[in-house]
Amino acid sequence: MTEKKTGRPPKYTEAQVLEGIGIVEENGDTPTGETVKRAMCVHLGVPPGINSQSLDKEVQRLLDERERQQSARLIVALPETSRNAVREISRTVESAILLHLGREHGELRRINEQKVTQKDMDLAHQRAQIRELLIKLDQQAEEVAALEEAARAMQDQLLQSQERNSALMTRITELEKRQDFREEMFAFIKDTLAQPAPHLPEKG
After folding, report:
1. Which of 41, 55, 164, 180 could form a disulfide with 33 if both were Cys (CB 3.0 to 4.6 A apart)?
2. Distance CA 190, CA 68 (A)
3. In angstroms, how far apart are the furthest CA atoms of the chain?
4. pLDDT tens for residues 104-136?
5. pTM listed for this prediction
6. pLDDT tens digits along 55-99
7. pLDDT digits over 3-15, tens only?
8. What is the dihedral sign for C-alpha 115, 117, 119, 125?
């Protein structure tokens, strides 16, 4: 089973395109899809309904292929000494380019290593500063805890002092009450002793 082709087949052959290119160049014009189409229609009897854009791609392909073939023929025609000289020059140029690239690569690596080293040093310095700050924070936390403990102790002492003062005031109040009671008793006894003795009846 043959594969079904899609699209409309071209109404020209490769040989006709090559001949049309030659006609255009002989007339001093540049081969393009449009100029080759015109030459093919006028001189080769190709129908005018062909697509100029598709023909332009074919013209460019054939021109590139012709240039490659011409270059290959020119290179083949060179003597062996010329080829060897070119190879030697190519090796020399390649070596010089690689050496230049190697030196640039080495310099870039050196600069990059310096930057990495500097970044490592900066990072180590920052870490040391962070450790110092953490130590200071710990010390401050300990100082704050100690101050809070001292404040609690002072508060406890104050409460104890207030309780003692309250107890003393209560005791003083009780003593004052007892002193007043004693003074009242002394006054009562004194008044009682100052009164005359009652008259007793005589015995018969």
Report:
1. 55
2. 155
3. 200
4. 888 888 898 888 888 888 888 888 889 888 888
5. 0.42
6. 999 999 999 999 999 999 998 888 999 888 888 898 889 889 988
7. 344 444 568 899 9
8. negative
CA 106 from chain centre, in angstroms, equals: 28
> Which residue is it, tokens 């309904």?
49
Considering Cα of 38, then 39, then 44, then 50, what sign does the dihedral take? Answer: negative
